Amino acid sequence: MSGKKNTGGRLYTYLIMLFLYAPILVLIVFSFNGINSRTVWQGFTLKWYGELFADRGILSSFYTTISVSVLSAAIATVAGTLTSVGLFNMRRRWRAPLLYINNIPLINADIITGVAMCLLFVSLGSVLKFRLGFGTLLIAHITFNIPYVVLSVMPKLRQLDENLVDAAQDLGCTWFRAFRRVIIPEILPGVVNGAMIAFTMSIDDFVISYFTAGSGVMTLSMKVFSMTRKRVSPKINALSSLMFAAVLLMLLAINIREIRQERVAKNKARPLSGIPARSGRGAK
After folding, report:
1. DSSP summary character for residue 215
2. Distance between CA 71 and CA 62 in Å, rounded?
3. From CA 134, how far away is CA 128, in angstroms rounded?
C-alpha cells in the first residue's frame, strides 16, 4: 500500500509540475521560431532576440523597471528592517495591532491600493504642484514592499537570543554597534529574503504601477500589456524567456550558496577526530 501511495504522490507531483511549467517551455521554444506564429514551427532563429534588443521602447521600460525595483527594494529593506526592530521592542498590546495594519496591504486587492494611491498623489499634486511620474511610482513600490520585508525579518527577530545583545552592551558596545555587530548578522537571512521578495514584487507589479506611473513613465509589465493589445509579438516570448532564465540562474546561485553554507556548518560542528580525551586524573 505504501508503494502505491508513493507512486500516486509522485505522479500527482509530476502532473502539477507539468501543468505549471509546460506553458513556459512552449513560450521559450516559440521564442526561437522562424516565423511570427504561435502554433506553426518553421526553423530556428535568433532574430526575435535581436529585434528585442533593438527596440528602444522595451529597453527604456526595462531600465525603468530595474531602477524602480532596485531602489524600492533597497529603501524598503532598510525601512522594513528598522520597522521590524521597533515593533519587536514594543509591548505586545501595541505590537499586535500594528502588525495587523502591516498585513492589510498584503491581503488588500492591488486595484484598491492602486486607485487609492493614485487619488492620494493626484490630491497632493494639486496642492504641492507635482505630477504622476517616476517619483510617485517609486513611492508606491516602497509602500507595498515594506510589509513583505517586515514579515520576513520578524521571525528572525523572534529567534534571536536577547542575551547576546545584553552581553555585547555589557562588554562596552553601544546600542548601534550591538545592532550592527550582533543583531544584523543574526537576522541577515530574513533581511536578504525580504529584499529578494521586494525586488520580485516590484518587477512583477502591473496594477499599482499602472495607476501611479502617469503617462510619461512605463514599466516593463505596462509595455508588455500595451503590446498584447494587438497580435502578440515573438519579442515578448524572447523577453519572457530571458527573464525566466535570469530568475532560474538566481535561484540556482542561492541554492548552491545555501548548500555550501550547510556543508561548512556541518564541518564546523563535526567533532575533531584523532585527539584523545583527557582523563580526570591527568587534568589538573
Report:
1. S
2. 14
3. 16
Which residue, 62, 70, 219, 216, is CA-closest to 145? 70
Longest dimension (CA), the chain: 88
Q: Considering the entire predicted model, what is its pTM? A: 0.80
Cell 521560431 belongs to: 33
Cβ atoms within 10 Å of 47's Cβ, excluding its own: 13
Return the amino acid letter for 132: L
Per 3-state DSSP, what percentage of the chain is helix, strand, and coil (rounded to 5)? 80, 0, 20
Residue 260 burial (CB < 10 Å; 0-12/13-18/19+)? exposed
Pair 225, 206: CB distance under 8 Å = yes
Distance CA 157, CA 198 (A): 19
What is 64-231's CATH number, 3.40.50.620, 1.10.530.10, 1.10.3720.10, 1.10.10.10?
A: 1.10.3720.10
Per-residue pLDDT of the chain (284 residues; tens, 9 = 90+): 555 667 777 888 889 988 888 888 888 888 888 877 777 788 888 888 888 888 888 888 889 999 999 999 999 999 999 999 888 888 888 888 888 888 888 888 889 999 999 999 988 888 877 788 899 999 999 999 999 999 999 988 888 877 777 787 777 777 778 888 888 888 888 898 899 899 989 988 899 999 998 888 888 888 888 877 777 778 888 888 888 888 888 888 878 887 887 888 788 776 544 555 444 444 43
Segments making up each domain of the chain, as ranges: 64-231
- Say which amino acid occupies 240: S
